[in-house]
Write a structure and sequence with these properties.
By secondary structure, the protein is α/β, with parallel strands linked by helices. The protein contains 14 helices and 17 strands. The protein folds into two domains: 153 residues, Alpha-Beta Complex (Aspartate Aminotransferase, domain 1), CATH 3.90.1150; 229 residues, Type I PLP-dependent aspartate aminotransferase-like (Major domain) (Aspartate Aminotransferase, domain 2). The longest helix is centred in the C-terminal third of the chain and has 25 residues. The protein is globular, with a radius of gyration of 21 Å. It catalyses: N(2)-acetyl-L-ornithine + 2-oxoglutarate = N-acetyl-L-glutamate 5-semialdehyde + L-glutamate.
Length: 409
């Protein structure tokens, strides 16, 4: 029996994989829409969306068709060449956003790495080597490379990996006064998530983003919006910056862009893009034809008035139902978010128990997420069917009942 045909199980993970993950005790093998099945045939409703990745659910026919067609034509040609799917996708992105230019890579971390390198290069070219400082926010998350993990504002992810890169400062999120005290002529960039995702689904205040935009203009610093999680329809707009009417200088996106196929993008203006001249940055697989063909199909579906309006409507419905459920059982202090990025904040009596509630939901056949120890996060397919929302909420209520019984005061 070949390796491909060999029977494997969750136990094999502990034997052959690096133990940096602690995966669930079951192995998904098939998905359709917002439903998953594991090796035993058990069905689960997926309101996690692969951590906001499966924007069109599992195995959407249009994405399967785009990938299959491209797989029969061209897989990879290296960045010695360009390719048609990359050009088409870049055109769609620039036509739909503030941006003039696109750089494709494979993950959110890579897109953020490119954005941060671009910011330092722009500042170096325009103002000299003293302008290199980067301001990020406490509890932010921007990726797992050595650079991006230190730009992120969660020390638990950067500890143990050697000296921190110089010139990175963290200030509290939604605190404009702290930003004003910190930014200076030495600042080359401010990087923000319009909605902090991993730390609790915390939206930015309008006045905060307006103020940060003005400060960046004053000090000739690039404003980078990390829309790895909020981008490509997640908030009910193609990108969250549109919700606020605040335009960044650089935007990064990934997750939903490929609907499950690895791809990311950094978007910026013509003026900024010129500082990444030939040889200054690159990637082996970024912009490959397979990923870009899928990304193009994703955008064609999501960037439509019908789908984006549906995201807003379904998000409002999901938040309201969670608020009602939270009040009924006294389990949530707040339900927040935009579109179909929703965070349910646990009451203080259930402090640090988000993981336990996630596990309870899984036992009821429902997949949800956490965003820190105190927030249960929902990031379902942007076209999730109403029946799946309702059945998912019914299963979640069953989980809440058992969770409260086991963990209540």
């Amino acid at each position: 029996m070949s390796i491909q045909e060999a029977q494997v199980s969750r136990a094999d993970f502990d034997q052959v994989m690096v133990p940096n993950y602690a995966p669930a005790g079951f192995v998904p093998v098939r998905g359709v829409g917002s439903r998953l099945w594991d090796q035993s045939g058990r069905e689960l409703i997926d309101l996690s969306g692969g951590i906001a990745v499966n924007g069109l659910g599992h195995c959407h026919p249009a994405l399967v068709a785009a990938l299959t067609q491209q797989a029969q034509q061209l897989w990879h040609v290296s960045n010695v060449f360009t390719n048609e799917p990359a050009l088409r996708l870049a055109r769609k992105l620039t036509e739909a956003t503030f941006a003039d230019r696109v750089f494709f890579s494979n993950s959110g971390a890579e897109a953020n790495e490119a954005a941060l390198k671009l910011a330092r290069k722009v500042a170096y070219d325009r103002f000299g080597e003293q302008k290199y400082e980067i301001i990020s926010t406490v509890n932010s998350f921007h990726g797992r490379t050595v650079f991006t993990v230190n730009v992120g504002g969660q020390p638990k992810y950067s500890e143990g990996f050697g000296p921190r890169p110089e010139g990175i400062t963290h200030v509290p999120y939604n605190d404009l006064a702290a930003m004003e005290r910190t930014i200076s002529e030495r600042t080359c960039a401010v990087i923000l998530e319009p909605i902090q995702g991993e730390s609790g689904v915390l939206p930015a205040d309008q006045t905060y983003l307006d103020g940060v935009r003005a400060l960046c203009d004053k000090y000739d610093a690039l404003l980078i919006f990390d829309e790895v999680q909020t981008g490509v329809g997640r908030t009910g707009k193609l990108f969250a910056y549109e919700l606020y009417g605040v335009t960044p200088d650089v935007l990064t996106t990934a997750k939903s862009l490929g609907g499950g196929f690895p791809i990311s993008a950094m978007l910026t203006t013509e003026q900024n893009a010129q500082h990444l001249s030939v040889g200054t940055h690159g990637t082996t697989f970024g912009g490959n034809p397979l990923a870009c063909a899928v990304g193009g199909a994703v955008l064609d579906i999501i960037n439509t008035p019908e789908v984006l309006a549906g995201v807003v409507e379904k998000g409002e419905y999901l938040r309201e139902k969670l608020r009602i459920l939270g009040e009924k059982y006294g389990v949530f202090a707040q339900v927040r978010g935009k579109g179909l990025l929703v965070g349910a904040v646990l009451h203080k009596q259930y402090q640090d128990q988000a993981g336990a509630l996630l596990a309870a939901a899984e036992r009821e056949g429902l997949l949800v997420l956490v965003a820190g120890p105190n927030v249960v996060r929902f990031a379902p397919s942007l076209i999730v069917e109403q029946v799946d929302i309702d059945e998912g909420l019914a299963r979640f209520e069953q989980a809440v009942v058992k969770f409260v019984a086991q963990n209540g005061a």
